[in-house]
Amino acid sequence: MTLRIETDLDKVEQNTRILVDRLAVTGIRVTGVTKAVMGSPGVGAAMLRGGARGLGDSRLPNLARLAALDRPPRRSLIRSPMLSQVAQVIDVADVSLNTEAVVLSALNQAASEQNRMHAVVLMVELGDLREGIALDDIPEAVRTVLRHPSLRLVGLGANLACQNGVIPDDRNMAILTELADDVETQHGISLDVVSGGNSANLHWALHTDDVGRIDDLRLGEAILLGVDPLYRAPIPGLHTDVFTLTAEVIEVSRKPSQPWGDRAQAAFGEAPARTGSRTVHQAILALGRQDVDPDGLHPPEGITTLGMSSDHLIVDLGDHRVVVGDEIDFGVGYGALVRAMTSPFVSKVEHGGHCA
């Protein structure tokens, strides 16, 4: 037995297919995002089987892993390229999302040296204050790309809800639509993609009367966890149990509900509050903050998390009958998924699907 996170690839494929089909009636296509699963080729292949038009990731090693697929997909770097990595960007990414003129110049030089043409999507600031070029600066950014012979401007994009929770709506999506029209008119070009955003755009895309020029969404969390990131609400019809995190019980005991002795800070700051005066049916699991984000960990019904240090998860078992050596399965939220997938102490197991 080992600490592990298991992935149901059939459910990844099904979630992708459902979202692809729902968005197809609006004219929006899906780019599957694999960053939460370290660019897993198995997950990427499942997204492609489900109808994703390509795959996106924020890390170059993850994009390189996706090249191992039998039919390498269109790969997009969805974080602004590091200036120090432009040669690698040209090598592993077909498309990159960009905001900086100095990076565009370096990408052009690297693409020229590799005798390649690199596709660029310019990111537009629409209010969430993460990446994005100010609206007034877009015309010059477009001219910058068009001046570089080894770059091709393929589209515009935006990102909302990640930094400050700004909701995608008719108003901000209309700005992106109008901007795309203006760019095409002014420069006599045709944009291949207008990428409205991420999983947070789903509610807008499926309920608006007019998506305008938006024809692509970059979906990760919605596919992988089956939830709407705006409110973490389950999306009807989607699987919310794609992932299961399993940990082993290393101690079971009856302990007082309240600690005793003088108290200061615990390992990660303030100690969690423990209430009540009853005896707690407590268990410790071999799982810690090095492995998972406790805020995104969902224990089985009837089990309550009491606290977590680097290597120990403390739970109240309630009425569950558990002995040392037993395993307990947990669901995961986005933060817990990301940390579990990046922890070297958590084994990754994939089930279902077909060979990539």
Automatic annotation (TrEMBL):
<dbReference type="GO" id="GO:0030170">
    <property type="term" value="F:pyridoxal phosphate binding"/>
</dbReference>
<dbReference type="InterPro" id="IPR029066">
    <property type="entry name" value="PLP-binding_barrel"/>
</dbReference>
<keyword id="KW-0413">Isomerase</keyword>
<keyword id="KW-0663">Pyridoxal phosphate</keyword>
<dbReference type="GO" id="GO:0008784">
    <property type="term" value="F:alanine racemase activity"/>
</dbReference>
<dbReference type="InterPro" id="IPR000821">
    <property type="entry name" value="Ala_racemase"/>
</dbReference>
<feature type="domain" description="Alanine racemase N-terminal">
    <location>
        <begin position="8"/>
        <end position="223"/>
    </location>
</feature>
<dbReference type="Pfam" id="PF01168">
    <property type="entry name" value="Ala_racemase_N"/>
</dbReference>
<dbReference type="GO" id="GO:0005829">
    <property type="term" value="C:cytosol"/>
</dbReference>
<protein>
    <submittedName>
        <fullName>Amino-acid racemase</fullName>
    </submittedName>
</protein>
<dbReference type="InterPro" id="IPR001608">
    <property type="entry name" value="Ala_racemase_N"/>
</dbReference>
